[in-house]
Amino acid sequence: MSVEVERKFVCNADTLKTLEEIGVCVGRREFRDQYFDTPEFDLTLRDMWLRKRKACWELKCPTTVNGTDEASGGQSKAAALCSRYREITNLPEIQQRVREVMKVIREDGETEASPSQEDESWLSEMNLVRFADFTTVRQSFTLEENGVQIDLDQADFGYQVGEIEVLVPDGADAQSALEKIERTAGKLGLTGDQRVDGKMNVYLQRNHPEHHAKLRREHVL
């Protein structure tokens, strides 16, 4: 299991030019994302994001800031501009985590057989419905900085955003990842001190304003 540390940015013409000069394009791909939650938003109100991409499931769960900054109630500028999510890709573990939230307990106490990626009956069992569905064209770059990937995403609902991403092992100190992201942002000439909205934030704002408003009230978005 890994933790994704990520900073989003607005990619203008100057940023793209710099990226093409100092980076190496490692691929371009298109994928469809479908997100699921209960009608009461039990998952997303806990900042948990259940996603299906290319027939594979993933659950992104929040992780806290490591170190004294969190304990003192503050964060460095680099940390404040980044998000951290624990990424779970094992389907039985995803289902277990969701059941813990839903408090769904099997009455017979038997162990369930390992589900297949194609079997989606568990979605209706836990009252999960699709609330977002969109396609993204992604162009990915790498720099000399080891372990850093830069993605430029163009979503089919008319939103474009860049992402600087570093993966670290679960439980590891994320400080080195933050430093790598900050150095990469400097190389790209990024100077903003405000978080940039991700695709989901903009999608919900445009398509499901009630859902978006609830997440804003709970300080999820």
Secondary-structure topology with pairs:
Blueprint: E1 2-9, H1 13-22, E2 24-37, E3 49-53, E4 56-62, H2 68-71, H3 77-80, E5 82-88, H4 91-102, H5 121-125, E6 129-142, E7 148-155, E8 160-169, H6 175-187, H7 199-207, H8 209-217
Antiparallel strand pairs: 1-5, 1-8, 2-3, 2-6, 3-4, 4-5, 6-7, 7-8
Largest sheet: 8 strands, antiparallel, barrel
Distance between the termini: 24 Å
What fraction of the residues are assigned to beta strands by DSSP? 25-35%
**Largest sheet, spatial ordering of strands:** 1-5-4-3-2-6-7-8
The average pLDDT value, as a whole number, equals 87
Shape: globular
The radius of gyration computed from the alpha-carbon positions, rounded to a whole number of angstroms, is 18 Å
Give the ordered list of helices and strands.
EHEEEHHEHHEEEHHH
Low-confidence parts lasting 5 or more residues at pLDDT below 50? 66-74, 105-114
Provide a count of the helices: 8
Q: Helix- and strand-based class? A: alpha+beta
How many DSSP-defined strands? 8
Summarize the structure.
The chain is α+β, with helices and mostly antiparallel strands and 221 residues long. Helices cover 30% and strands 33% of the residues. It contains eight helices and eight strands, in the order E-H-E-E-E-H-H-E-H-H-E-E-E-H-H-H.
